[in-house]
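Fold this complex.
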Amino acid sequence: MSGVIKFRNLTKIYDGITAVDSLNLEVKKGEIFGFLGPNGAGKTTTIKAMMGLLKPTKGSIVVNGEKISTSAGISSSSVGYLPEVLDLWDNLSGEETLRFMSDLKGVSRSEVEKLLHKVGLSRAGDRKVKGYSKGMRQRLALAQSLLGKPDLLILDEPSTGLDPSGVAMVKNIIREHVDRGGTVFLSSHILPVVEEVAHRVGIIVEGKLRTVDSVSNLRDQLQIPTKMNILLSSNHKKVEKYLRKSPMIKSYSGSKNMLTVTCNKNDKKDILDLIEECGVDVVDFDIKEGSLEDIFLSFSRGDM
Amino acid sequence: MNSKNKKVMAIAKKEFMNNVRNKWVFILGIIFVGTILLTSAYGGMETRGEAGIRGFEFTINIGTSMVLLLSSVVAIMVGYKTVVEEVEDGNIGLLLTSELKRKEIVTAKFIGLSAVIASAIIGGLAIGGLVIGFAASFEGALDYLYFMILSFLFSLVFLSLAILMSSMVKKKSHALAGGIFLWLFFNIIYELVLFGLLVAREGMPDFAEGNFEFLFPEWYWFASLLSPNETFWMGVNVILGRYNLPDILSLPVITVILLLWIIVPLVLSLFIFEKKDL
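Structure:
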C-alpha cells in the first residue's frame, strides 16, 4: 500500500514554542488512521499544516503525491476536509452551502440532495444555516467534506456536537468511505469511536509523535491489564486471600458474590481455575481488554 | 470559462449572495437614493427660495460629500471581515480544498464584494440620476455618469483598503478598528494636515475674496494624490470645471491614480495573506 500522506520531519514553532517537533508519519491508502493527543498536543497544528494553512518551520508534507505549500493549499480536489472549528456561512441555506461547495470543488450539484439525506438534513436543506443547531451544523459540515467522493477524508473532531445517532452516522460514513477504497485521517477525543474504526493510531504528546501502531498491538506492547468481572456461587471472601497472594492478580475488589480483578490477558484462564480450586464455582464472567483510553492515558500521563 | 475561473466566480457569487442580504448594504443603498434626491430637491433652498429637483451639476456638487463619507463606510463595512472572518470561522480550509490559491480566493472575494458595492452605490446613484433626469433635465448626464464611475472607483479604494486590513490581522475587531482608522485618517486627519501645511506655507487664505488660485497652489494638488478622498474630490472638480488644477491632472490621469489606489492595497493584501499562518 502506498503512502497517501507523508510527513517528513515536520516541525512548527510559534513564538519560540514548539507545537510539533520532527513529526515523521506515513498514512497508507485504504487506511483509517486515528490521530490522538491531549489538548494542545499539536494535533490541529499538524492538520492545519497538512491543509496548507500553516507554513512548517521545518520539514515537508506530501498529500496524494503533491507537496503542500501555504500559497497553493492542498491542491487536490480529491480531499474532503472537516476542520475542528467550523462556522459555516450563516446567510446561506444548507442546500446553498453544498451547491457552493460543489461549484468550488468542480463536482456535480446532483450529489447535494443525496448528501443532505445521508446526514439527516433533507427537511432542513432550505433553511438558513443561522437557524441550525450545533449538531445540524456539524452534519452539514460533514456533508460538505463528502462532496465529489474524495479519495482522502481529513476529519478533525467529526463527532463534536452530535447525538448518539450522529456519532453512529460518522462511524458508518468512515467505514463506507474506506470500503470503497478511500483513506481517512481522523482526529478525535471520542476514543471509543477511534478504537472501533481505526486500523492504526498515532499518539502525539507535547508535539512529539510518541507511538504509531494498531490498538491491539499497543495493548500488547504496553501490557495494559485486562479487567475481569466474575460472578461467584458464594461470597468472594472465600477466595480473597488466595487471589490476593497470587502474582497473577494486579488489583482486587469484591462485593458479595461479585469479584473484579485485573490481570495480564494471558492469565485469565489460570485465575478462573484458581477460583475453582478454592471450591467456589464461577457462575458467569465478562472480560474487558485494555482500551484505547487506557493506552491514551498511559502516553498522555507520561507513563510511557 | 475554464474550471479555475468558474471556481473564482463561484466564490465571487457566494460573496455577493452572502453580503447583498446584509441589511446595512440595503439600508445604505436606500440612504444613497434618498439623500441624492433630497439634497437635489431641497439643497440650497435658502438661496433659491423654493424646493424642487435641480439638475445634475447641482446634484454632483452637493452629492460629493455624501459619496466621500457614506460610500467609504459601505466599502469598509462590506470588506473588513471578508478574509479574517473566513479564518476565524474555519471556512478558509474549505475554500482551500478547491485547488484555488490564496491569491485567487482573495481576488474572487474582491470581485464579489465589488458587485455588492456596485449594487449599493452605482444602483443608488443611477436610480437617483434617472429620477433627476426625468424630473429636471438630462443636461449634464455625461458628467453625472463620470461622477458615478469615480464614486464607484472611490468606493473600491476603501474596499481594497478594508481587504488589506482583513488580510493583515487575526481578529475581526482589529480589522474593523483598522478600517475606522483609515476612514478617519483620509476623511479628517489627512485633510487637516494638508490644510495646516497650506496655511503654514501660504498664510491664512482669504475665503471672502474667493482667491482659489492662492488657496490651492500646485504642490497642494499633487500632495492631494496621496489621499483617495482628495483624489476623488479633484476628479469631481475636473468634471465640474472648478479650480485650475495642473494640466497633467486630467480626468484619465485622476482615474488611473484611483485605480492605483485600488490595485496597490489589493496586491499588498494578496502577498500578506499568502505568507500568513491561518
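The interface with chain B takes residues 48, 51-55, 70-77, 79-81, 83-89, 91-92, 96, 100-101, 103-106, 144 of chain A (CB under 8 Å).
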